[in-house]
Write a structure and sequence with these properties.
Helices cover 41% and strands 17% of the residues. It is of the alpha/beta class and 245 residues long. The protein has two domains: 103 residues, 3-Layer(aba) Sandwich (Rossmann fold), CATH 3.40.50; 102 residues, Rossmann fold (3-Layer(aba) Sandwich).
Length: 245
C-alpha cells in the first residue's frame, strides 16, 4: 500500500546535522504525490586510534545510522544531501562510494557527484565554472572529480567557509556576485556544490542574466532522484535542468 500523501514516491534524504538548506529546498521542489523524509547524520569525527594520515572524508558523518533511521519511513529511494565526500577519488571513487551506501541500505542511495554526472551528460555540458563554499584545498577535490567525468573546469571560486552554519548564512547577494564572477564566453554552464549553500532559487534567477544554465547541487540531486524514480514532472522556479530535462 502506498502512503496517501506519498502515493507516487517517498524519498529519504540524508543531511548533516548542521545542514539547514537541503530540507527546505527539497520540499520546495517536491511534486504533488511525492513526500520527503529527512534523517540527520551526526558528526562522529575521527575514530579512536586513527593515525595522523587518517582521511576524515566519508567517515566524519554517521551515514549508516541515518540510513537505518530513514528506512523506518518505508522510503522508495534515498538521496545523500551532502556533496563533499562524494567527490573523493574522482569518478571511480564516487561510484564506489554510492555502491557502498546502496549495498548497506539494500536500496538505491544516490550521491550528488554522480547526480551531477547525469545532469551534465543530459545537458551536453563540456566547459564549466564551479562555485564552492569550501576552503581552497577542498576545491582541488571537486575539480579533479569533474575532470575525471569529462568536463573542463574553466574557473573556480571558493567562499572559504570552515563551518556548516556559516555556509547556510551566506547572503543572497554574495551568491549572485560569485556566480557572475564565474561567467565567461568560454563557459557552458556554472555549477554550484556544497549542499548547505542556499542557491536553488538563485540559480533560476541567475540564468536570466547570464543566459546559460546555472546548476545548484540540491536541484541536481533532487532532479536525479525524481528521474531515477521515473517521475518526469517539469518543475519551474529552479532553473533549466528541473524545468526542461
Amino acid at each position: 500500500m502506498k502512503n496517501t500523501l506519498g502515493h507516487r514516491a517517498t524519498i529519504g534524504i540524508l543531511v548533516p546535522g548542521r545542514n539547514t538548506t537541503v530540507q527546505p529546498e527539497s520540499d520546495d521542489m517536491r511534486p504533488v504525490g511525492v513526500t520527503n523524509h529527512v534523517a540527520r547524520m551526526i558528526n562522529i569525527g575521527v575514530p579512536p586510534g586513527a593515525g595522523a594520515d587518517f582521511k576524515i572524508g566519508q567517515y566524519a558523518l554517521d551515514m549508516e545510522g541515518a540510513i537505518d533511521a530513514v528506512k523506518l519511513a518505508g522510503v522508495d529511494i534515498i538521496l545523500l544531501g551532502h556533496s563533499h565526500d562524494s567527490f573523493e577519488g574522482g569518478l571511480k571513487g564516487g561510484t564506489a562510494f554510492e555502491k557502498k551506501l546502496s549495498d548497506f541500505a539494500g536500496m538505491p542511495v544516490l550521491v550528488p557527484s554522480l547526480a551531477y554526472v547525469a545532469a551534465v551528460k543530459a545537458m551536453g555540458l563540456k566547459r564549466v565554472s564551479i562555485l564552492t563554499p569550501y576552503l581552497t584545498a577542498d576545491d582541488d577535490l571537486v575539480k579533479s572529480f569533474f575532470e575525471s567525468a569529462g568536463c573542463a573546469v574553466v574557473k573556480m571560486k571558493a567562499l572559504q567557509y570552515d563551518t556548516g552554519h556559516a555556509i547556510a548564512q551566506t547572503p543572497a547577494d554574495v551568491i549572485r556576485t560569485s556566480l557572475a564572477a564565474l561567467d565567461g564566453p568560454e563557459v557552458d554552464a556554472i555549477l554550484q556544490v556544497g549542499t548547505n549553500l542556499p542557491t536553488a532559487r538563485i540559480s533560476n534567477e541567475a540564468e536570466f542574466w547570464l543566459n546559460k544554465p546555472v546548476l545548484s547541487v540540491n536541484v541536481v540531486d533532487y532532479w536525479h532522484t525524481l528521474r531515477t524514480l521515473g517521475i518526469d514532472d517539469k518543475v519551474d522556479g529552479f532553473g533549466t535542468l528541473l524545468r526542461d530535462y
